């Protein structure tokens, strides 16, 4: 049974707690073979957490609502582009949806640590369904204007402030610590499999009957997770200690993260990548409209190809028993470099093909950061830590999206895409070097079986070899 152990208050960064992974262990690997986060090193089956009834209900409901969510995302981007003809306007819509997370995300984490998560999810999932239904009615009635889309995007963002950390941390209550990494990966696989279906359905609906039906169906889709929550057996949930009401809990959460390099630096990295590297609604719509001269169906196809790579990345992550920071850094660096390569692809087929490995690397960054952070965090602090993680990963979009949209409008889709990739790659390289230095590692360049090899090794091992 999973229980909270209480929060440490601002330990010194130099202090090493053997119960949590150090940067050395996370980057270079533990010689004992013990996985990061203290989990069982035996390799899990790909779908092991689905054996748990409560998680199966949650997973099934999320399949339906995630499909509706992706339908709405595609329809929303295309509707804004149709109403305004501006990639900047698409960026503003995306920014408004994530602005509440930037402003209030940490307060959402405090609420999640205090309140029962299942009851919170009843409220948030119902509210998200209502926003989709409202936008559907406005669009089908012919009264929709761009400010309506802006408003519903902002309201949806307000609900997400609580919904995101509640959904992330409720997973541990359903499956326990042993299955947490597998369940986090399957949640991502769930989201990405819906991303395969949602854009394709949205493209057909937009072409055939308009965006309104995609919004309306998204609203109806939230009945599925509400039913799943209602059917759960509460006695089978793992009990987690809830934080009592008190002053200074937000500050306590920030001090907790600041004192742990294995938490703060992954959060910094995903903050840069979320702000500048994940602006695909802007880039893909601009590539379709300005570079390749496509339509809504083409836009849906590109999103589907990227989702295929993301789904493959999620399923591969579900088979990994560990979540190491060296994998996070390597995937983030590859993600940024591949964005730069894709931005200058001369032909549509090559650009589309590169989206598959790009989706795989982007998903690997997300899942590895998510699971490693959750497993390294005390349960009583998990809501605040995951709120901070989601705040910097998605909340940076209000800062990055308008800027990226302006660069895309001013200098073209290729330059905008390349700029996002360059910032992501530089952030990955910098964080990797910082973690290596904190962990007492040095970069070693040499030959291995006749091939060049670049890797981090402990300074002691390097000195012995010398």
From TrEMBL:
<feature type="transmembrane region" description="Helical">
    <location>
        <begin position="325"/>
        <end position="342"/>
    </location>
</feature>
<feature type="transmembrane region" description="Helical">
    <location>
        <begin position="78"/>
        <end position="100"/>
    </location>
</feature>
<feature type="transmembrane region" description="Helical">
    <location>
        <begin position="263"/>
        <end position="284"/>
    </location>
</feature>
<dbReference type="InterPro" id="IPR010290">
    <property type="entry name" value="TM_effector"/>
</dbReference>
<feature type="transmembrane region" description="Helical">
    <location>
        <begin position="385"/>
        <end position="407"/>
    </location>
</feature>
<keyword id="KW-0812">Transmembrane</keyword>
<keyword id="KW-1133">Transmembrane helix</keyword>
<dbReference type="InterPro" id="IPR036259">
    <property type="entry name" value="MFS_trans_sf"/>
</dbReference>
<dbReference type="Pfam" id="PF05977">
    <property type="entry name" value="MFS_3"/>
</dbReference>
<feature type="transmembrane region" description="Helical">
    <location>
        <begin position="348"/>
        <end position="373"/>
    </location>
</feature>
<feature type="transmembrane region" description="Helical">
    <location>
        <begin position="147"/>
        <end position="166"/>
    </location>
</feature>
<keyword id="KW-1003">Cell membrane</keyword>
<keyword id="KW-0472">Membrane</keyword>
<feature type="transmembrane region" description="Helical">
    <location>
        <begin position="413"/>
        <end position="436"/>
    </location>
</feature>
<feature type="region of interest" description="Disordered">
    <location>
        <begin position="1"/>
        <end position="44"/>
    </location>
</feature>
<dbReference type="InterPro" id="IPR020846">
    <property type="entry name" value="MFS_dom"/>
</dbReference>
<protein>
    <submittedName>
        <fullName>MFS transporter</fullName>
    </submittedName>
</protein>
<feature type="transmembrane region" description="Helical">
    <location>
        <begin position="296"/>
        <end position="318"/>
    </location>
</feature>
<feature type="transmembrane region" description="Helical">
    <location>
        <begin position="120"/>
        <end position="140"/>
    </location>
</feature>
<keyword id="KW-0813">Transport</keyword>
<feature type="domain" description="Major facilitator superfamily (MFS) profile">
    <location>
        <begin position="46"/>
        <end position="439"/>
    </location>
</feature>
């Amino acid at each position: 049974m999973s229980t909270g152990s209480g929060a440490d208050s601002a330990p010194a960064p130099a202090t090493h707690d053997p119960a949590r992974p150090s940067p050395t262990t996370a980057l270079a690997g533990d010689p004992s073979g013990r996985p990061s986060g203290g989990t069982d090193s035996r390799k899990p089956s790909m779908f092991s957490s689905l054996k748990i009834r409560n998680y199966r209900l949650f997973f099934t409901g999320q399949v339906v609502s995630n499909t509706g969510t992706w339908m709405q995302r595609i329809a929303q981007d295309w509707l804004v582009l149709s109403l305004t003809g501006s990639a900047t306007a698409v960026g503003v819509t995306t920014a408004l949806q994530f602005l509440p997370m930037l402003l209030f995300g940490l307060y959402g984490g405090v609420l999640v640590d205090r309140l029962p998560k299942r009851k919170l999810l009843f409220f948030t999932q119902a509210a998200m369904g209502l926003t989709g239904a409202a936008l559907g009615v406005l669009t089908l009635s012919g009264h929709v204007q761009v400010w309506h889309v802006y408003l519903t995007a902002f309201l949806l963002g307000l609900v997400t402030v609580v919904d995101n950390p509640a959904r992330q941390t409720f997973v541990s209550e359903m499956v326990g610590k042993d299955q947490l990494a597998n369940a986090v990966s399957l949640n991502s696989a769930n989201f990405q499999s819906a991303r395969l279906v949602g854009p394709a359905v949205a493209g057909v609906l937009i072409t055939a009957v308009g965006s309104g039906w995609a919004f309306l169906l998204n609203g109806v889709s939230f009945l599925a997770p509400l039913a799943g929550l209602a059917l759960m057996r509460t006695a089978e949930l793992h009990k987690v200690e809830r934080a009592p009401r008190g002053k200074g809990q937000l500050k306590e959460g920030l001090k907790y993260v600041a004192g742990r390099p294995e938490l703060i630096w992954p959060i910094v990295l995903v903050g840069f990548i979320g702000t500048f590297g994940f602006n695909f609604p802007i880039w893909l719509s601009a590539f379709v409209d300005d570079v390749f001269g496509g339509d809504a169906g083409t836009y849906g196809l590109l999103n589907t190809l990227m989702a295929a790579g993301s789904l493959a990345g999620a399923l591969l992550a579900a088979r990994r028993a560990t979540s190491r920071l060296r994998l996070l850094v390597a995937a983030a660096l590859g993600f940024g470099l591949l964005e730069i390569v894709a931005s200058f692809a001369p032909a549509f087929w090559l650009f589309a093909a590169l989206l598959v490995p790009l989706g795989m690397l982007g998903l690997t960054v997300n899942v590895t950061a998510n699971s490693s952070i959750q497993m390294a965090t005390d349960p009583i602090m998990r809501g605040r830590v995951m709120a901070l993680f989601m705040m910097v990963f998605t909340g940076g979009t209000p800062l990055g999206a308008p800027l990226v949209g302006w660069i895309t409008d001013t200098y073209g889709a290729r330059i905008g895409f390349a700029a996002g990739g360059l910032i992501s790659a530089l952030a990955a390289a910098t964080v990797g070097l910082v973690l290596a230095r904190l962990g007492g590692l040095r970069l070693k360049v040499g030959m291995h079986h006749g091939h060049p090899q670049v890797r981090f090794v402990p300074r002691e091992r390097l000195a012995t070899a010398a």
